[in-house]
Write a structure and sequence with these properties.
Blueprint (H helix, E strand, L loop, with lengths): L1 H15 L6 H11 L5 H16 L9 H12 L5 H6 L1 H4 L6 H7 L21 H7 L6 E5 L4 H8 L3 E2 L3 E4 L15 E3 L2 H5 L1 H4 L12 E4 L6 H9 L4 E6 L2 H14 L5 E4 L16 E5 L12 H6 L5 H17 L6 E6 L8 H8 L4 E9 L9 E8 L2
Parallel strand pairs: 5-6, 5-8, 6-7, 8-9
Antiparallel strand pairs: 1-3, 1-4, 2-3, 9-11, 10-11
Helix pairs in contact: 1-3, 3-4
Length: 384
């Protein structure tokens, strides 16, 4: 029977996969090597595998195939033939609310999905955060200035004022819009970081605001700053030259013609730093990414908390270098996509320990209750 074969394929994948690369890339290679699998088989098997990892660290003692079926039951909200074949009693209850379904599973405790409750930043609801791993996150777009009316009319639904669109994950954005020109693919809370970037004093007559994105990555927040402050003088840096090459294409599409970029490992002693006085510095540091694991549940499954001090060390090194370049009146915005206190509040305490920095605000940007990423942001000012 095809369902037996699909379950067997899912078990084979889970046994072989060790988290060495992103699961979606690993699955593409696996399916390429097993061309006898049709598109429906691939979709079903991928869903089974992701459901297994969405259980995180719960039910680890359960037999693999039973755990696969449990993941399918808890992460889908409609009945299906596959579940009917193996667990008809669960399939009949598939459309019930998640917490009612959890009550039907003897011995399953959702708080074990993410077992590091004591490591969480203040204000994160551990139970709700655990439940968020059992739900597929949504896709969020930021509407760029001047395109609000036409984008909202085209999509018809999912508009979150003033400039956010919520869509089902997997939506082919390029078939609806021109990415980076009309909209930017950007998570809900990445967009909310704008509140930490606004309100800068005037740079003075004849001088443009200067902004440095120290760990630019995909460049979404640099485009955000460009939209917040038209005419801003942008500098971007990253440890990877390939990232900056990709940024060149994104910025071109976004209409950003003039900017500065350089490759730098800011975690190393004495890196090259821009000589210009910066008004706004964004440091979106490398981190565990724990606030985004509902998108990549394999990272939750394979995570070792002993890695947190390594990330802390890197974050401190980057911040020490960045802080040394700040001038009086400059604004530093520190951002992570982590839920761990050691990467969030503890790092802000480290920043504040440096002479001359005053914290204006800092908070967890909760996304686990919105099918979005959870982030942390803080804004600090260099005292004049």
């Amino acid at each position: 029977m095809k369902f037996d074969n699909q379950l067997r394929y899912a078990s084979t994948i889970i046994t072989a996969y060790q988290g060495e690369e992103p699961l979606h890339i690993w699955l593409k290679d696996f399916f390429r090597q097993h061309k006898q699998m049709g598109s429906r088989d691939r979709k079903t098997v991928a869903g089974l595998v992701y459901g297994y990892y969405r259980l995180g660290h719960s039910a680890r003692e359960m037999a693999m195939q039973d755990r696969i079926l449990l993941g399918l039951f808890l992460t889908n909200d409609s009945p299906g033939e596959f579940l009917e074949y193996f667990r008809p009693e669960w399939n009949q209850q598939a459309a019930r609310p998640l917490e009612e379904k959890i009550d039907l599973v003897e011995g399953f405790d959702p708080v074990e999905i993410f077992p590091w409750r004591n490591e969480l930043s203040e204000g994160v609801d551990h139970y709700e955060f655990c439940l968020s791993f059992l739900r597929q996150p949504d896709l969020f777009l930021r509407i760029r200035p001047g395109y609000e009316q036409q984008v909202v009319q085209r999509v018809g639904q999912g508009f979150i004022p003033p400039s956010t669109i919520r869509l089902p994950n997997g939506t082919k954005v390029e078939e609806l819009f021109t990415p980076d020109r009309e909209v930017v693919i950007q998570d809900y809370n990445s967009q909310r970081v704008a509140a930490f970037l606004t309100g800068l004093p005037s740079p003075g007559v004849g001088r443009a605001r200067k902004f440095w994105d120290t760990c630019a990555a995909s460049g979404g927040k640099a485009i955000l700053v460009h939209d917040l402050y038209p005419g801003v003088d942008i500098t971007v840096s990253d440890i990877r030259e390939s990232i900056l090459r990709n940024l060149q294409q994104r910025f071109h599409q976004a209409g950003i013609k003039e900017y500065h970029s350089f490759v730098a490992d800011l975690s190393k002693p004495d890196p090259w730093m821009p000589a210009e006085r910066m008004d706004l510095v964004l440091t979106d540091v490398p981190c565990t990414g724990s606030g985004t694991w509902s998108r990549t549940p394999e990272e939750l499954y394979f995570f070792n908390p002993q890695k947190i001090p390594d990330y802390q060390s890197t974050q401190k090194s980057i911040l020490s270098n960045v802080i040394s370049s700040l001038t009086p009146g400059a604004c530093l915005v520190y951002v992570t996509c982590s839920v761990f206190k050691k990467e969030n509040e503890d790092m802000v305490a480290f920043i504040r320990s440096k002479v001359g920095l005053r914290q204006e605000r800092g908070e967890v940007l909760k996304g686990y209750d919105k099918k979005a990423d959870t982030m942390f942001a803080a804004r600090l000012i260099v005292i004049q």
